[in-house]
Write a structure and sequence with these properties.
The structure holds 2 protein chains of 2 kinds. By secondary structure, chain A is of the alpha/beta class. Chain A contains 29 helices and 10 strands. By secondary structure, chain B is of the alpha+beta class. Classes of the chains: A alpha/beta, B alpha+beta.
Chain lengths: 670, 84
């Protein structure tokens, strides 16, 4: 085999190395660690064209050889069950990588070799990266790479990626295979006798009609497996009378998928028989021992609460002081700008110091909390503990159609809604991801709670604490109510079964964690940061012009237009203006009130009733989130879903506020 | 035949059949739930999702999903997977 220069590369790769390696593997086999160790910061993270699935590509080199590495989505098989599976196989079939590296976990060799049985049917040479040998030893499992290599007929490279072992050998094997220096005679899994005949018939019928670049025998097999995408493809390609014949054949063998999968596992058993030594009967591996505690209904829940309490502890101990220091720094810079521009027109100084620095300051003060939360997410995921959280939380989350994994991002929302929305990426299915990020804004973040902490005592004195807790409870209730609405009415009929692997525990890889945090922070700054800055400057301008102050500004005018709505809530227009400014940042509510009223703590009880205050607080707690959250919602879910989410929140918050106001007024006779 | 969801922790069985829609069967099959494969129950709290061990992997399954897997119960644990 020789290397040909490639012409059909995706545009962002044209300047990269001409040899393309695709990295394939099931979830949790250490594929990301291998990708990160090979590419380091030479990687580009984007989305697959037109898809919401993350696409990572990168450059790696060894000696004179340089390779372009494409990280395919982690999938258990290559049927069209999910978007990830379609992406992975389409890439191999259509883009024809020069080599596919199949990463497998030595500790669960049979299961992770299942993907290999599918990869071997596609037109690209495969190298097996036998990863996690260290984890296998820790679980008492011993694997002989040389024996496996002899059985499979493809190169097998022993690796412990998290410990940095096997990378030189891996790239050297790629180079040698491409140069034709090592033999490549793969064994391929076969189909059971009872289906051989029908597979042959199918192949004869469809072969002349299979479009490029699909291999005809692979298409025939996928038809027999009942693969939706390939079935649709061939239905469109075949003349109607031929399709009728094919369809009749397939109908007789509807359950072939089980036999095909069963035959693949039998083939795997034959391949690994001589290569694997298992632990003695009854011997407990590390994972089994840890799971007796971590998945226990009581002890597991206590551990979970401890872990999450730890994350919040770190946030308050490290994140908050860092955030305050950054705020002080930005404020000092803004003050410097004000003084430097003292001679210039006042609007210019205000624009730069309050508008631009205010917006930029807000973006930057998000960084400490995002840093801590992303690190926590990466650690939980990379150690394998996240799957246990998902298992424990699934019972509660299931009620509103959420995956157990949604629990962690939603919980992070109590700190800040932005990482809650971004954190929804860890959820595999698009439906559960959408649900999670649409519900995230209903989790009361610290900024919302700060507003409550200031306003509640103004009206409720000693009962303020109870009011605050009641409001939090109401929000949690709203999460379930809106979850049910979305699950049962709007996103109905796409319910996905709960099937989740509990990976073996292993030590996290520092580089994988660091790169995950880095990529996410950079993406936030680059994509969300600029938009948030722009919108904050815009809203600042509305609150400044035309007279150079909030009173009489466009925003105040808008607040006055909302006076009829304010009347329904029993509050003056100033409160509506404060609600509007909370769109930039929740804590702005307080700032606006002090500008409009001066000493609002004395004045407010005279202009509105406690019933109205309660209604207003309910509205404030359920209102559309701050601009930063809205921007990341738009980026993660698209404009339509973001708009739907905001629409529902508007209805819920105003409806809830008005209802609470009138009910409370009735009850208290005010 | 017994539905997988009725297996008690520590009990094992050999898968005989899978019911349910094509996509559920196909996903379960890829994870190793194929006829002939031994399964051991690891955790079955009586309600909510359960944990089973199949082909050396621990898999969490919804109760409804587990009810679609039919097996032949075995008396002694089949492999090294130890119940909790």
């Amino acid at each position: 085999m020789t290397v040909q220069p490639r012409t059909e590369l995706p545009p962002e790769l044209t300047c990269m190395a001409p040899v393309v390696i695709a990295l394939a593997g099931q979830p949790n086999v250490g594929k990301s660690t291998i990708f990160n160790m090979l590419t380091g910061l030479n990687q580009h993270v984007g989305n697959w064209p037109g898809k919401t699935v993350e696409r990572k590509s990168g450059l790696c080199s060894q000696g004179d050889s340089a390779f372009t590495l494409i990280d395919l989505p982690g999938t258990y098989s290559l049927t069209a069950n999910s978007e990830e599976e379609r992406i992975a196989r389409d890439f191999i079939v259509r883009e024809r990588p020069d080599v596919v590296i199949a990463v497998v976990d030595a500790a669960i060799l049979e299961r992770s070799l299942y993907l290999l049985t599918e990869l071997l049917l596609l037109p690209a040479p495969v190298i097996l990266a036998l990863n996690m040998l260290d984890v296998a030893e820790q679980e008492g499992i011993h694997v002989e790479p040389a024996v496996l290599e002899a059985a499979l007929g493809i190169p097998v490279v022993p690796m412990s990626a998290a410990r940095g072992m096997g990378f030189t050998e891996l790239l050297e094997t790629v180079r040698k295979l491409l140069a034709g220096e090592i033999p490549y005679h793969p064994q391929r899994p076969t189909i059971r006798k009872e289906h051989e005949l029908v597979l042959g018939q199918l192949l004869t019928l469809i072969e002349p009609h299979v479009p490029q670049p699909y291999p005809a025998d692979w298409v025939a097999l996928k038809l027999l497996e009942g693969d939706d995408e390939i079935t649709a493809l061939m239905q469109a390609q075949l003349p109607p009378e031929l399709w009728t014949q094919v369809h009749a054949l397939l109908h007789q063998h509807e359950d072939a998928i089980l036999d095909i999968a069963g035959a693949r596992y039998e083939w795997i058993e034959r391949m690994v028989r001589a290569a694997v030594v298992r632990p003695r009967l009854g011997q407990m591996g590390l994972t089994a021992r840890l799971d007796t505690v971590f998945t226990h209904p009581l002890w597991g829940t206590l551990v979970l609460l401890g872990v999450l309490g730890g994350v919040f502890g770190v946030t308050y101990a490290l994140g908050s002081p860092l955030q305050e220091a950054l705020s002080a720094l930005i404020e000092a810079l803004a003050e410097g700008i004000r003084q430097a521009l003292a001679g210039a027109p006042p609007w210019l100084g205000a624009l730069l110091a309050d508008g631009v620095m205010g917006g930029a300051g807000m973006v930057i003060t998000f960084l400490p909390i995002l840093l801590i939360f992303f690190t926590a997410l990466a650690l939980l995921e990379d150690t394998g503990y996240m799957a246990r959280i998902a298992y424990l939380a699934d019972r509660v989350m299931h009620a509103i159609g959420l995956h157990g994994k949604s629990f962690v991002p939603l919980l992070l929302g109590f700190g800040c809604n932005v990482p809650a929305v971004l954190g929804s990426r860890i959820i595999e299915t698009r439906r559960a991801r959408l649900l999670t990020l649409l519900l995230a804004p209903l989790i009361p973040c610290t900024a919302r709670m700060a507003v409550v902490a200031v306003l509640a005592p103004v009206f409720f004195d000693g009962a303020a604490v109870w009011v605050s807790w009641g409001l939090v409870a109401l929000n949690v209730l709203a999460v379930f109510a809106m979850g049910l609405l979305l699950h049962r009415v709007i996103l109905r009929g796409e319910q996905v079964a709960f099937i989740m692997e509990l990976p073996l525990y292993h030590l996290p890889n520092a580089r994988t964690v660091a790169l995950y945090v880095w990529n996410n922070l950079v993406a936030f700054l680059r994509k969300a940061g600029t938009v948030i800055l722009g919108v904050s400057v815009g809203v600042w301008a509305l609150s400044y012009f035309p007279h150079g102050e909030v009173t009489g500004s466009y925003l105040a005018t808008a607040g006055q237009w909302l006076e009829p709505l304010g009347r329904l809530l029993g509050v003056p227009w100033q409160m509506m203006a404060a609600l509007l400014t909370s769109f930039v940042a929740k804590e702005n509510t307080i700032a606006t009130l002090s500008i409009l009223y001066g000493d609002f703590q004395t004045i407010l009880p005279q202009v509105m009733s406690p019933a109205a205050a309660l209604g207003y607080l309910v509205t404030q707690m359920l209102f559309i989130p701050c601009v930063a959250t809205v921007v990341v919602m738009q980026q993660e879910a698209g404009t339509r879903w973001m708009a739907l989410g905001l629409g529902l929140l508007l209805v819920l918050s105003l409806g809830g506020g008005i209802a609470v106001y009138h009910l409370a007024a009735l009850a208290w006779g005010l | 035949m017994t539905p997988l969801s009725e297996l008690q922790p520590g009990q094992a069985g050999i898968i005989r059949a899978l019911q349910g829609g094509h996509s559920l069967v196909s996903r379960l099959a890829a994870l190793g739930f194929t006829p002939g494969a031994p399964v051991t129950m690891v955790r079955n709290p009586g309600h909510g999702p359960l944990i089973v061990s199949v082909r050396g992997t621990r898999v969490a399954l919804g109760r409804g999903e587990a009810a679609q897997v039919l097996l032949l119960k075995q008396e002694a644990p089949h492999d090294g997977a130890t119940p909790n």
